[in-house]
Please model this.
Amino acid sequence: MRNDPPRVQPLDYPSAMEDLDRRLVGLLLADGRMSYTDLGKATGLSTSAVHQRVRRLEERGVVTGYTAQVSPDALGLPLTALISVAPFDPSAPDDVPDRLRHITEIEDCHSVAGVESYILKVRVSTPGDLEDLLARIRSAANVSTRTTVVLSTPWEGRSASAAAGEVS
Amino acid sequence: MRNDPPRVQPLDYPSAMEDLDRRLVGLLLADGRMSYTDLGKATGLSTSAVHQRVRRLEERGVVTGYTAQVSPDALGLPLTALISVAPFDPSAPDDVPDRLRHITEIEDCHSVAGVESYILKVRVSTPGDLEDLLARIRSAANVSTRTTVVLSTPWEGRSASAAAGEVS
DNA sequence: ACTGAAAATCCCTTAAG
DNA sequence: CTTAAGGGATTTTCAGT
Model:
């Protein structure tokens, strides 16, 4: 694989997180409504200890919130696409995200290193809606677009962090 | 924008979802730990009614679960990349997702229409880890890769569905 | 389908060791 | 971090409309 040069510091990056914290995060990723009591049973900790740790995780910004997982299909948004955008005028100040933020069909907005400046993930109902959306994006941000249609999604949102909470 | 031909059926697609359901989904997207009591207060429904509707939303597969939102940065995974993969041998049966599923760094896996077959979203700690990951992906699935590094993410996971739950 | 209330349960919080 | 316990809130059910 890779020829590891010796590291100056044998540290793991910011990730100074204990094993218990990782387990808790993993459990909350799997079920964000789990009670502190149940989290305690699953980790062997007392309810109070879990409460403390989860609160700290929230304060440290490791856990930023909780949300329902919703099926776009069931919501009538069966068409997903990835859109690369490039500004028509590269000399203009780059406020593309600000100009696009109000467009709710855009689920993700990444600034990327490459020929194009941003990659968006969008969800719509029909090809016609996609056509409309592209027009809105182009005119709102003065960009050209290159669209890749998603055919299917074997998996999504699997939070790499979940590996941290795996049962060993 | 687009020249709408008259629709054969003036239906809204599968989305036969009432306004109340949309509001509930929106609220649960914003706070997945909200209690039925509070959901009731927010929608003007009784606790029981909320309970019924949320249960039905879960049964219908609209709400598929609940999860904590976790900051990859805080977890020590500050480097995100999008990887397009294309099979070396296009005649071989396409079991790329199965071959990649065990690689936990891969958060999303989309099958796409385009020159390349799949687009992956991955998270790692360092460029070195990305290098390793790419090698593992290539050898596990016998594919070539094209990697786009994410510089920053103005927003992510904004669930287009949230628009449904907006305050009018 | 929603309301309202009652019952049972569970949860959070605090305190003390 | 644990145990213990109080008080409170929440889930869940059920009958009624």
Chain B touches chain A through 77 residues (CB under 8 Å). The longest strand of chain B covers residues 143-155. Chain B has five helices and five strands.
